[in-house]
Amino acid sequence: MLTAQRRELLLERLHRDGRIVAADAAADLGISEDTIRRDLRELAAAGLCQRVYGGALPASPATSPYDERTRIEPESKHRIAVAAAALIEPGATVLLDGGTSTLALVGALPRSLHATVITHSPTIAVALAEHEHIELQLIGGRVYRHSMVTCGAIAVEALREVSADLFFLGVTGVHAEAGLTTGDSEEAAMKRALARSAAETYVLASTEKIGAASTYRVMSLDEVAGVVTDADAASPAMRELDRAGVRFVSAR
Fold this sequence. Notes:
There is one protein chain. The protein is α/β, with parallel strands linked by helices. It has two domains: 3-59, Arc Repressor Mutant, subunit A; 66-250, Rossmann fold. 38% of the residues lie in helices and 24% in strands. The protein has ten helices and 15 strands. The protein has helices at residues 3-17, 22-29, 33-45, 66-69, 74-85, 100-108, 122-128, 153-159, 185-196, 236-243; strands at residues 20-21, 50-52, 55-57, 93-96, 115-119, 134-138, 142-144, 149-151, 164-170, 173-175, 179-182, 198-204, 216-219, 226-229, 248-250. A seven-stranded parallel beta sheet has the order 6-5-4-9-12-14-15, sandwiched between helices. Strands 1-3-2 form a three-stranded antiparallel beta sheet. α5 crosses α6. The radius of gyration is 19 Å and the shape is elongated. The termini are far apart.
C-alpha cells in the first residue's frame, strides 16, 4: 500500500471513529506500529490530527489565525452566543475570554443589560464600549496576538482581586478524553486563572470544536458548569461527552 493511500485510510478512520489507536490501526492494515506513528507525525505536522499517547485525535480548525476563525461556523457561534447571553443575570459580574465565540456573545448582549464585564481581550473591550450600562474593566499584560488577549504574570496578578459570578471560556477543543484544550501554553494558563476567579465557568463550543483537541490542556470537563453548544446531541463526539457526565446548555 502506498504511503498516501495509507494516510488517507487513517484520516477516514479518524473522521469515522473520532480517534486513531495506533495498535489497532497497525493490526488492521497489517503494518508495524512504528509505521503508523510515523504517519501520524506527518499528519500532525500538516495540521490534520492531534497526536496523543497511543494514537491521535481530530485536530481543531479553531487554531487558525484570528481573521480566518471569524469565518468558521459563524451561524453556530451566533446561536451559542444567544444561549450564553441568557445565562447572564442583571447586575452580574462576568469574565469574558477572548476569541471569536466570545465576540459573538458580546453582539448578543442586550443594550439594556446592567452588568460588570472584566476581560483580558482588547477586541472584546472595544466591542463592549458602546454598551453604556456595562461597567467595563480591561486586564493588562503581554498581548498574545493569535487570540488578541493579554497573558503572563501581570495579567494573572490582576485577577487575584477579582471574584466574578460567571466566566465564559473559549477553547479550541472539547473532547471526552483530552478535556478542554487550546493551542498555546501561556494562554491555557491564563484561562485557568480566569476560571479560578469565577464561581461558575461555561464553555463556548461551536460545532467544529466538539470532538477536537489541541496541544495544551486548559481544564478537565468536570471543572466547568456547562458546555454551551449547538452540536448534534446524536453525534458520536457528543454521545461520548454525555457519557463523561458533561452538562450541556443547548443552543439548538
